[in-house]
Amino acid sequence: MAASLLVGLLICRGAALSMDVHLRDLDHDLIDVDRIVPFAHQVGGHRVGDGNAASRDVALIRDDNGQHRLLKPLQPDERGVREALFYRTISQEFARLACTVRHRPTTSDAEFRFIPKYYGLYRMPGTDHFHVSLQNCIGHMRSPCIADIKIGRVTYDHTATPDKVLKEVANYRWQSEIGFRFVGVKTYRQELGKFDVYDKPFGKSIHPGNVDTAWSTLFCCGHAPHVQRRIIRNILSRLAEIAALMRAQSQFKMYSSSLLVAYEGHPCDDDVDCDPPASVHMIDFGHAFPIEDPNDRDHNYLFGLERLIASLEAYHRKMEPSDGT
């Protein structure tokens, strides 16, 4: 096993503190602050901090080719180390397995990746603020409609203190039953030419009896019904592929991880042939831990993912016209 992967596995097991490994110990580059631009489409819980002066949001950074990559801030503790090492090491093995599941020969095409492509670890000059540079999964969309959906019936890992467990359970009482939670939703309203944003209180208002409210909020941009159904089918296809991957992989379990679901909400020039791009990516790996038993699987994640698929399939069936067209 490569040394970097071994270190990654050890830290993912929760050994970061005992090994005294910090983000500064990892190879990284300094951020060129002149290349940073705001990111207009952040949803969910990716801010580091609670709105104080030290809070950091997701941003974009312009590369040498003029393309914009995502700059995601990392937590300044073992969660940040764990996530950085996940992207540097384990995610590459995961990407290769994803191609095997999809019967693709390589991972070169970003379209066939389930995890945003990793471009490196960066530090803000003069600070201990670290970021991972990632593929902007919605960069090709003009008016993206986005949902950040936290997956799993349990959102805390084995290192959580009793207080942390109680806090997570109280945070969303339906997590263990529904298996997923809408952390944030952003939709483009074609008739108004603007975005509507629904944050954590909206997600916490969703319960087993009104999950369709979340779906109808996400899919209300103004596309013709047959176009919206096509988008949902594309998303379901992507979710099914991720489920197949998670049933096959025995490398790690992920807690408090999310799926970033997105589609193009901008009006089509031709509704008849309109097929807006849609994507689903796995994100947030601050609580990814190796699986000890190769015969084991991430049943917690699979429970939530399968419930999510079943919920969206049911919503899609309700959208079908009575004549089946």
TrEMBL record:
Q: Species name for this entry? A: Plasmodiophora brassicae
Q: Which family does it belong to?
A: Belongs to the inositol phosphokinase (IPK) family.
Q: Which reaction does it catalyse?
A: 1D-myo-inositol 1,4,5-trisphosphate + 2 ATP = 1D-myo-inositol 1,3,4,5,6-pentakisphosphate + 2 ADP + 2 H(+); 1D-myo-inositol 1,3,4,6-tetrakisphosphate + ATP = 1D-myo-inositol 1,3,4,5,6-pentakisphosphate + ADP + H(+)
Gene Ontology terms: cellular component? cytoplasm; nucleus
Put simply, this protein is called: Kinase
Look up the record and give one Gene Ontology term from the biological process aspect: inositol phosphate biosynthetic process
Which keywords annotate this record? ATP-binding, Kinase, Nucleotide-binding, Signal, Transferase
* Cited Pfam families: IPK
Under Gene Ontology molecular function, one entry of this record is:
inositol-1,3,4,6-tetrakisphosphate 5-kinase activity
Identify which top EC class this enzyme belongs to: transferase
Q: Tell me the first and last residues of the signal peptide.
A: 1-18
Q: What is its EC number?
A: 2.7.-.-
